[in-house]
Amino acid sequence: MTIELSIKEKKIFEKAKDFSISNFTSEKRKWKGCDKSFKDAVKIFSDNGYCGLGLPLELGGQGYNFLEQALIYEGLAYGCGVLSFLIQAHNNVTREIGTFYNTSREIKELVPDMAAGKRINAFALTEESSGSDPSSITAYAELKADCYHIHGKKKWIVNAAEAIHFNVMVKDGSPNSHNILMILLDRNTPGLTIGKKTPIMGLSTMSCCDMEFNNCIVSKKRMLSVKGYEEVLTDIDAASVFVPSISMGIAQRVIDLTVNYLGQRISFDKPIISRQGVQWALADLSTKVEAGRWLVYKTASLMDSRNKISIQAYENNLYAAEVAMETTTKCLQFFGAEGYTENSVLSENWALAKLLQIVDGTSEIQKIVIGRELELQANE
Ligand SMILES: Cc1cc2nc3c(=O)[nH]c(=O)nc-3n(C[C@H](O)[C@H](O)[C@H](O)COP(=O)(O)OP(=O)(O)OC[C@H]3O[C@@H](n4cnc5c(N)ncnc54)[C@H](O)[C@@H]3O)c2cc1C
Question: For the chain, first and last CA: distance in Å?
Fold first, then answer.
């Protein structure tokens, strides 16, 4: 077992980090994070090879493995966490559509444009009364002749304002069904209403909207999977590599900014960083980020070797989100009032860290899954 990144892997990370800093951060305002809207950013991502990351080359993608993708999202997040999160959300759905499911030719033909960022994808699972427990969704699709008729509502859908396609999870036939289907729905489908953007704490770049399906009729060729629940879990496994890598990117960025700031900021005649209490706190954070980073790389490597990774994925997700939250909270405090301004890197990354404890399964749900696995081991 080699516990070191190769030269190629290090370069992939550094390139993504440099690209993100030079394209998405502004020197004009002192601590400004992201300067671009997601729509503008997608074109820049695409022109520079950051769309379609996990898709094979023959489908118009970049052909990166899981570890390489994790390194890229970590590097992108160093420059701008929220844009790294948003492009990851699009890329991940695209990768799944291109590689996971046994899709129709009609869907396969859309994949190259998705991979190029010309068609943005979103993932629509959550509903008003169904978040942590996906099996309780009530949106449903009835098959009549060759078409599905979709009814119901979704909530909190990221990139919904920009998306052309939605990977929608619905019950099979009726709200009480035990089976979940995944269907690819176009934005312009009659009967589909996309609500206004929900204002999100501290993350103005992110669009997040409700959706309503009022007898949306789609060809059954738009079926992505009849094993929706299983596919959701597979999707969460993949997100458990990429989302934690974003946590590590933002955590390292705020540590670096804090070290720099406290090295210059004088109080009681000395740079604040010269105080032992401050150094010890930063030492703790730095150690946790280093540990979290290697947990991400290990989980990504396991995904690449196709091992069963479930518990590892949940541990990775849990630890990275907790470390990012602790790091951004403490570093914001180290900046004093300067960290508390709207849209500063500190406040933006703090808000993103909080989101990363909620989205794709809350920290509590991660603990429940890990705990159940441990209980099973106790009973073996
Ligand atoms: C900005 C943003 C973007 C999002 N993007 C998307 C998206 O693109 N697509 C999508 O489908 N969804 C999206 N979501 C939804 C997100 O995945 C859900 O919010 C998340 O899964 C949690 O569901 P919930 O908010 O309904 O919380 P709930 O399930 O209502 O839980 C509330 C609280 O109770 C805790 N809890 C629940 N059950 C238990 C239990 N058994 N034991 C102990 N504690 C428990 C939870 O951890 C949480 O703290 C997004 C959410 C946000 C905020």
Answer: 29
Listing DSSP states for 264-306 in one string gives H-EETTEEGGGSHHHHHHHHHHHHHHHHHHHHHHHHHHHHHTT
Domain boundary assignment for the chain: 7-115, 121-226, 229-379
pLDDT tens, residue by residue, 274-320:
999 999 999 999 999 999 999 999 999 998 987 667 788 899 999 99
Does ligand 1 come within 6 angstroms of the Cβ of 236? Answer: no
Digit-coded pLDDT (tens) for 61-89 = 999 999 999 999 999 999 999 999 999 99
126 in contact with ligand 1, CB cutoff 6 A: yes
The CATH T-level fold of domain 229-379 is Butyryl-CoA Dehydrogenase, subunit A; domain 3 (1.20.140)
User: Which residues, in sequence order, are CB contacts of 169 under 8 Å at separation 6+?
Assistant: 124, 125, 134, 137, 139, 180, 181, 182, 228, 232
Residues 6+ apart with CB under 8 A from 11: none
pTM across the whole model = 0.96
Residue ranges of alpha helices (H) inside the chain are 7-24, 38-47, 66-79, 81-99, 105-108, 111-115, 228-264, 276-304, 310-334, 345-356, 363-379
**Which fold does the domain 7-115 belong to in CATH?**
Butyryl-Coa Dehydrogenase, subunit A; domain 1 (1.10.540)
Q: Which CATH architecture has domain 121-226?
A: Beta Barrel (2.40)
Distance 360 CA to ligand 1 centre (A): 7
Expressed in angstroms and rounded, the spacing between residue 132 Cα and the centre of ligand 1 is 5
CA 246 to chain centre: 7
* Pocket of ligand 1 contains residue 347 by CB under 6 Å: no
